[in-house]
Amino acid sequence: MPGDYVRIVEGQYLVGGTRVSLDSLVYLFREGMSAESMVDSYPALTLEQVHSALAFYLGNQKQIDAYLAEGQRIAESQHQQSRQTNAELIAKLQRARRASQVPG
Length: 104
Prior knowledge:
Elements: E1 6-9, E2 12-15, H1 22-30, H2 35-41, H3 47-59, H4 61-85, H5 87-100
Antiparallel strand pairs: 1-2
Helix pairs in contact: 1-3
């Protein structure tokens, strides 16, 4: 499925020979950012790479959207697990923050 400008490395879609993820460009694209602004944000990329990566996304949108949704699901699950695992530490930090606040 990947083309010349998108490759899969360890299950992640990357643009060209860079470490810039396709995810990064897709999220910016969804926010309405121009390809030129993406190049400004990611100087490792050329305008041609950005346009090609976005064309790849649009040509495979269902599959890439499913990939992104699964990534979000995994991230949320890991976040929830981390909060449960570190509940005592989080509570301790919150108590310390409240104790250090100046009454006002």
